[in-house]
Amino acid sequence: MNVKPKVLVVYYTQTGQLKRIVDHVLAPLEGKVDVTFEQLVPTEPFAFPWKKQTFYDTMPETVLQTPRGIQPLKVDVNEHFDLVILAYQPWFLSPSQPTAAFLQSEQGRQLLKGKKVITLLGGRNMWLNAQESVKKYLQQAGANLVGNIVLVDKSSNLVSLITVLRWQFKGLKAATKYLPPAGVQENEIVTSARFAAPIAKALESGNWNNLQQELIDLNAVELIPNLILLEDRGIKAFRFWAKYISAKGGPAASSRQGRVSMYRSLLLPGIVVLSPITLISSLIKLNLKKNELQKEVEYYKSTSLR
User: Fold this and answer.
1) pLDDT single digits (tens) 197-208
2) Does domain 6-223 have CATH number 3.20.20.140?
3) How far is CA 239 from the centre of its chain?
């Protein structure tokens, strides 16, 4: 009797988009693998749609990776799984708080130890710093990152910013007369089923060495070079503001709301100004240091950790 490979999916989603992505990726494997879902549940839920001040007040602890806790996992951490799929979203260029809480938890580390892991991201367009943090947590847990799939909103940077904030604050995802729908494009979600074939192949053979390259060949990770520079500048700014705000108190503390409001008033104008400047500088760098920037692109597409 053939024993089906066992796959665990660990995920957190507010809108349901990430769960839909997971379902489409796994759909071709139905009946061929035994799938267990573990949804991460914060001890204090993050309300959706967000209140604007609450949203911006969530940034410091997200960037500093001091998240609010999650409820105990339902899955047995000692259970055998042939593969763990960690599905998450970046928040403020960092892993979402529930994801960080899972990766920092003793249960999470026990569960991941010795496991093959595929990370599956669904978000706007900047995910590099978040993935670097996740890579470090996985390494510390003794897990083996064998694949990474990234689905992003392919609208321009400023358009996707407008649509995602409209979704976050008003709960409105649908297209308008002037704006496309928010989030990852529907076609990207539906066609993500193509990633099942190399995953199934690796599960069957037990050979994971070529999985990431096979996923890349299917466009599992597409990276525009100028986003590397934009994100590098963005995370430095977020880290400054995270320390500056948190110095006045913990989450939701009234003593820090003045600084949260200051950060909130500067963030969007800063992105609007930085985006075209970074695009120009990246084009210059692409011409002057093409090989160097291309190496950066290849690194971020890989599962390796510097």
Assistant:
1) 999 999 999 999
2) no
3) 18
